[in-house]
Amino acid sequence: MNPTTAATWDEFMEGIWRQNPVFVMVLGMCPVLAVSVSAINALSMGLATLFVLVCSCGLVSLLRRMVPKEVRIAVYIVIIATFVTAVDYAIQAISLALYDALGAFIQLIVVNCIILGRAEAHASKTPPLPAMLNAAGMGIGFAIGLFALGAVREVLGAGTLFGVSLFGASFQPWVIMVLPPGGFFVLGAWLLLFSWRARRKAGLPAKEATQHV
After folding, report:
1. Positive or negative, the Cα torsion across 2, 200, 186, 119?
2. Whole-number average pLDDT of the chain
3. Given CA atoms 46, 50, 53, 56 in this order, what sign does their dihedral have?
């Protein structure tokens, strides 16, 4: 792999694993905890955020030399809000039930710190392709994090995945998993797993890695 390809791949993979927004950076927790009661809700919010992230970072990068520094944040917010509005109308057209389930969190993508942070810290300083690749990695990482929570909560809390029954009528759902405390429990479990893997990768013995989690 030549240096250019390696750098491009590194830009893409940064947000998916090494700097995952949910499990490593712990950003955007409001939608992560609020809409992850089911896999479809979580995945839909993740894909909506991915679209806004890639499009807004691409446009911010294209305009990076034209926007005065004094108004850059305001301009970024207007750009992000434009794509959020497009997503908002698209979800309404596709499924009103999904739109109602996601509620105000679609509009709140505008103030998601992941998107504004990528625009300010990365897209405003890099050419469009690396900026969009980095944004795509972050967006996919965010979608993976949301889906990981949503799938676990739906399976344990309702005995289904994407609405399909997994365990039959005899299954007793863990109702707490579809309530707000369930989101914190599942997020804590995933963070524990990621912390343990990071310490193992750093070379700590199994016993010491467990004690430090």
Report:
1. negative
2. 87
3. negative
DSSP readout, 90-134?
HHHHH-HHHHHHHGGGTGGGGG-HHHHHHHHHTGGGS-HHHHHHH
- Give pTM, 2 decimals: 0.87
pLDDT digits (tens, 9 = 90+) for 14-27: 788 788 899 988 88
3-class secondary-structure state, position 164:
strand
CB proximity list for 2: less than 8 A, separation 6 or greater: none
Q: 146 exposed, middle or buried (CB, 10 Å; 0-12, 13-18, 19+)?
A: buried
What lies within 8 Å, CB to CB, of 173 at 6+ separation is 156, 157, 158, 159
pLDDT in tens, 34-47: 899 999 999 999 99
Task: Determine whether 121 is exposed, middle or buried from the number of CB atoms within 10 Å of its CB (0-12, 13-18, 19+).
Answer: exposed
